[in-house]
Write a structure and sequence with these properties.
The protein is of the alpha/beta class. It has helices spanning 54-65, 89-95, 98-114, 128-137, 154-158, 177-188, 216-237; strands at 21-25, 28-33, 40-45, 69-73, 119-125, 143-147, 164-171, 195-204. It has seven helices and eight strands; from the N terminus they run E-E-E-H-E-H-H-E-H-E-H-E-H-E-H. Helix 5 (154-158) links the parallel strand 6 (143-147) and strand 7 (164-171). The longest helix has 22 residues, at 216-237. The chain starts with 20 loop residues before the first strand and ends with a helix. The mean pLDDT is 94.
Length: 238
């Protein structure tokens, strides 16, 4: 079951927002940003609110401005979670199982590589972190970043086979800082896998994409996390 933090502070949604555009990859509608000719791609897996969240698209544009071809698929097939909607979060999560997201992501990655992309990084936000870590275990990506992940277990982390960065929150009921520290210890025991774990002080679950734009401290923390994500992909995809 999802923590209340997973669905707190729903983001603004706008189908036309962003510097990029929507096109199909892997039979999914995807928000794409950055140079389409780039050989380096970053796949972003959203939280339950989906690919039309404006802050999610801002993050995609920021990574795209650094030269990556960024893809944010609509893994929920037009059915993002809606606060106080017809489906309670538990029912919604069953309808959009992580295995289904992973299977769709594999097809998107195949399309990217068929189009000339040579390396793919994956970033997962909240529940999207579970799909990102599962794909890093196969592996079918070259690097991964988890932003305040949900549903990720110690076993998942121990099975990761590609460079991984985990960005956690000090005040997170979904994946508490103590659990993130356990992840760090497990990764330190795997010197063959480059890793970086960082816990941000004074922030809560979801802060990197569901921050208040009028809160300067919240924006600053989110931007720092975005830069950490970008640096990780620069390091491991170039």
């Amino acid at each position: 079951m999802s923590s209340p933090h997973c669905i707190a502070n729903p983001p603004k949604l706008c189908s036309s927002y962003g510097a990029g555009q929507v096109q199909q990859l892997g039979a999914l509608n995807c928000y794409v940003s950055g140079p389409s000719h780039s050989k380096l791609a970053v796949l972003l897996v959203s939280d339950v609110f989906g690919y039309e969240a404006t802050n999610m698209r801002k993050l995609a544009d920021k990574v795209g401005d650094a030269g990556f071809y960024v893809v944010v698929p609509d893994f929920f097939h037009g059915d993002p979670y809606v606060e106080n909607g017809a489906k309670p979060i538990g029912v919604w999560l069953k309808d959009h199982a992580v295995d289904n997201v992973c299977n769709d992501a594999k097809v998107v990655i195949e399309d990217l590589k068929a189009g000339g992309v040579t390396k793919v990084g994956i970033g997962g936000v909240c529940s999207g972190g579970k799909a990102a870590v599962d794909l890093a275990k196969i592996p079918c990506v070259e690097a991964t970043v988890l932003l305040h992940p949900a549903f990720v277990t110690l076993d998942d982390i121990q099975d990761v086979k590609v460079p991984i960065s985990i960005i956690g929150a000090e005040n997170d009921e979904t994946t508490p800082a103590e659990v993130v520290k356990q992840f760090e210890i497990a990764l330190q025991a795997k010197p063959e896998v480059d890793s970086l774990v960082k816990i941000f002080d004074g922030v809560t679950h979801g802060w990197t994409v569901r921050y208040d734009e009028d809160d300067k401290a919240a924006v600053k923390a989110a931007e720092e996390a975005h830069q950490d994500l970008l640096k990780w992909f620069v390091k491991h995809l170039h």
